[in-house]
Amino acid sequence: MVFCNRLLAATLATLIIALPAQADTLTVRIGYLHWIPDQGPVLSNVIPAPEDSGLRGADLAIADNRTTGKFLGQNYLLEQRISDSQADTVAAFESLQKAGIDLFVVNAPASALTALVNAADEHTLLMNAGAKDDDLRTDECHPNLVHTIPSYSMLTDALGQWLNQRRWQQVFMITGPTDEDQAWAQAFRRSAKRFGLDLVADKPWTFDTDLRRMASKELPVFTQHGDYDAVVVADVHGDFGEYVPFNTWLPRPVVGTQGMSPVAWHRVVESWGAAQLQKRFSDLADRNMNNEDYAAWAAVRSIGTAVTQLGEANPTSIRNFLLGDQFQLAGFKGRKLTYRSWNGQLRQPIPLVHPRGLVAQAPFDGYLHPNSQMDTLGFDEPESTCRISG
Amino acid sequence: MNNRLKRTALAAMIGLSTPALASVAYVSNEKDNTLSIIDTDTHMVLETIEVGQRPRGILLSKDHTKLYICASDDDTVQVLDLATRKIIDTLPSGEDPEQFALHPNNKHLYIANEDDAIVTVVDVDTKDVLAQIDVGIEPEGMAVSPDGKWAVNTSETTSMLHWINTETFEIEKNIVVGQRPRHVEFSKDSKIAWASAEIGGTVHIIDVDKLEQIHQMSFKVPGVNQDRVQPVGIELTSDGKYAFVALGPSNHVAVVDAQSYEVLDYLLVGARVWQLDLDKDEKHLYTTNGVSGDVSVIDVDELKVLKSIKVGRYPWGVVIDPSS
User: Fold this and answer.
1) H-state helical runs in chain B
2) Could you say which of A27, A86, B9, B30 would form a disulfide bridge with B314 (CB–CB 3.0 to 4.6 Å)?
3) CA distance B166 to A253
4) Are strands A103-107 and A26-34 parallel, antiparallel or unpaired?
5) Do A276 and A139 have their domain in common?
6) Are B29 and B295 contacting, i.e. CB atoms less than 8 angstroms apart?
7) CA distance B102 to A271
8) B117, B156, B227 member nearest A372 (Cβ)
9) What does the longest C-alpha to C-alpha distance in chain A come to?
10) Same domain for A334 and A297
11) Same domain, A115 and A183
């Protein structure tokens, strides 16, 4: 108790002293734009996703940046705007740009991101922390757009490497009807080809039965198809996917968007100091850190790391530094994270998790690459038409 | 007369040799909540004793009678009496103590509190908390210069070395280094400090008089992917000849010429090598290999790995008692 009080007093004292000490503070203002379209009803996933996914990760990174910044005379502010339509998101963006903000973290679908890129000033830097679409990394790149959220193909390549490594190469795939499901499945088909997997069945999910009554009856029949090693589910929002495990015709593991999933981040990641990041996050947000939180955290920390090194917050300087050789982000994934210079994607290991445990982390030994082993995940430079670094 | 003399001498010899036993190394096992005690002559584990939760940093008192243990998940520093091998006391440590360093006065213990972004200074005799100093995020490495003038803390996420004046307990200088600085080691004359940056993959050499970086080293282990080369622990021989740098998941220890900063060799040890310690006559270097759960013993003259010794799960720190 005495110790606690002293701790508090000491913290308060330093806070009070610290404030007037910095005369010429560099204040870095970052805009955070959030628009998640209504996902519609889902049947199988009964646990709702947090509404502030992403935002809280940005909040934590701002706090992290501030702690570093106080030793260097730098302060960080987050201007957050939560919108309920694409038009609203663009309007919020334009008003923040007018107010002088030129660094943005965006958690919104690809269509909104493209609209923002079109509305952006020449120097404004946009960091995508929400849209996983491969097109944004292969064809539709923009010099001032970088991505901290892994693409669909990075996620599915991680899964593909793992399936190949386990020699579970005969795969039965079920794909949902939404655009996101299709994009995920398309990415997985590419991964299957890349890592020598055989799609013995590739079936669309068309049933509209309420699986909470019928799962045990529908799914065994649906998955009746010779032999296979694993079932891959492409159901991004959880409409039916949570019912697939334990209901397959053959006793086989379920992987993909349900069962064991490739992710950017999950509560079960604990190595390489991640336990500290998890704890800082749950103290702040009172929940576990998820993919979008991690992507927003990485975006805001990337800006902070660049500002620490550069001593300035000019968006063009930051952009050039992020895409250059000197940048490195300590991202609690066991390796330094860097940006791909041709398309602005943050390279990162991909954990494979089930809801209560870590199974493995890609890239795996044996998948070689001449430059960075992390570039075995997702579209590599020769497969992308983007050359944003000129 | 003669006989009596002989008998006394014999008794004295037995009396002396019994408590001292063999020369020993202490290893903290982070995921077993234990300490392995290794006989450094036979390279066998003599005893495994239970300590607090998640033991990480360990260090000897200057008189070599006690071992201090950061029991991170118990938010405490435990005091192990080396004669009886019993935990005799605990010290207030602040939350989540990870590494610490003892001032040459044998009284002031500097503890990095990873969760709180604070360095806590505790008087080990009175158990008073003398100061709490705000540092960067995830303070990790702690070192006190042998002349007692500086305490240095590394903050992992802030990527800085914080130089704390040990008279005033105030930060006098912050030096930005590579990403995720883990460990600081001073030369015996307190003139040079070596700091490792795990994610940066670098070791930074700091001139202590000027508080400036004078050199930056990187490593290239043949056949190992560059991003697995992650420097953590550093150990210097007192003759100024070698620096040994543990390179984490590259599973190698770099042998560095401590004068020219040239890498002389890379020695293959166990998986994810983190901390290092030299024995009394500096003939052997011990390394903790977290993932393989063992300790490698390196012959310093030959620069060869002699043996690995199985210890507990995720060995973290290693300390050799030079008086034993």
Assistant:
1) 2-20
2) B30
3) 58
4) parallel
5) yes
6) no
7) 28
8) B227
9) 73
10) yes
11) no
Are B200 and A328 a contacting pair at CB < 8 A? yes
d(CA A113, CA B320) in angstroms, rounded, equals 58
Nearest CB to B225: which of A6, A72, A373? A373
Closest CA to A147 of A180, A117, A183, A121: A117
Q: Give the count of beta carbons closer than 10 Å to the beta carbon of residue A38.
A: 6
Residue B174 reports pLDDT greater than 90: yes
Last residue of a domain, one of A262, A294, A310: A262
Question: Contact at 8 Å (CB) between B318 and B26?
Answer: yes
pLDDT band at A8 (very low <50, low <70, confident <90, very high): very low
Q: Does residue A3 sit within a domain?
A: no
Q: How far is A155 from A278, CA to CA, in rounded Å?
A: 21
Q: Do B227 and A68 touch (CB under 8 A)?
A: no
Question: A88-112, pLDDT tens digit by residue?
Answer: 999 999 999 999 999 999 999 999 9
Q: How far apart are CA B103 and CA B145, in angstroms?
A: 8
Mean pLDDT along residues A203-214: 74
If asked whether residues A249 and A203 sit together in one domain, one would say yes
B94: left (phi over 0), alpha (psi -120 to 50) or beta: left
pTM exceeding the 0.90 threshold for the entire prediction: no
What CATH number has the domain bearing residue A100? Answer: 3.40.50.2300
> Does residue A365 fall inside a structural domain?
no
pLDDT tens column, A157-166: 999 999 999 9
Asked if the C-beta of B291 comes within 8 angstroms of chain A's C-beta atoms, the answer is no
SS3 label, residue B162? strand
Residue B58 CB neighbours (<10 A): 25
Q: What pLDDT score does B221 carry?
A: 96
How far is it, in rounded angstroms, from Cα A253 to Cα A247?
10
Within a domain: residue A290? yes
Q: Where are the alpha helices (DSSP H) in chain A?
A: 2-21, 55-69, 86-98, 110-119, 135-138, 152-166, 179-194, 211-222, 274-285, 291-310, 315-323
The CA distance from B140 to B57, in Å, is: 10
CA A35/CA A106 separation, integer angstroms = 8
- Nearest-Cα distance to chain B for A327, in Å, is 10
Is residue A158 domain-shared with residue A241, that is, in the same domain?
A: yes
CA A2 vs CA A6, A205, B79, B120: distances in Å: 6, 62, 21, 14
Count the Cβ atoms, other than its own, within 10 Å of residue B266. Answer: 21
Q: What is the pLDDT of residues A315-371, one digit of tens each?
A: 999 999 999 999 999 999 989 999 999 999 999 999 999 999 999 999 998 898 988
Domain tally, chain A: 2
DSSP letter (8 states) at residue B55: E
For B121-135, how does the pLDDT look when each residue is reduced to its tens digit (9 = 90+)? Answer: 999 999 999 999 999
Give A236's DSSP letter. Answer: T
Range of A208's domain?
153-262
Pairing mode, strands B86-92 and B76-81? antiparallel
Among A262, A290, A317, the domain-final residue is: A262
Distance between CA atoms of residues A327 and A304, nearest Å: 11
Residue A111: CA count within 13 A, CB half-sphere: 8
Q: What is the DSSP letter of B142?
A: E
Does residue A360 form part of some domain? Answer: no
Q: Give the CA count within 13 Å in the CB-facing half-sphere of A97.
A: 19
Asked if A142 and A159 sit in the same domain, the reply is no
Contact B156 A11 (CB under 8 A): no
A230, A339: one domain? no
Let me know: does B282 contact B288? Beta carbons within 8 Å: no
Contact B317, B58 (CB under 8 A): yes
Handedness of CA B132, B60, B289, B48 (dihedral sign): negative
Which of A14, A68, A336 minimises the CB distance to B158?
Answer: A68
Whether A233 and A246 map to the same domain: the answer is yes
SS3 A102: coil
Minimal CA separation from B242 to chain A, in Å: 28
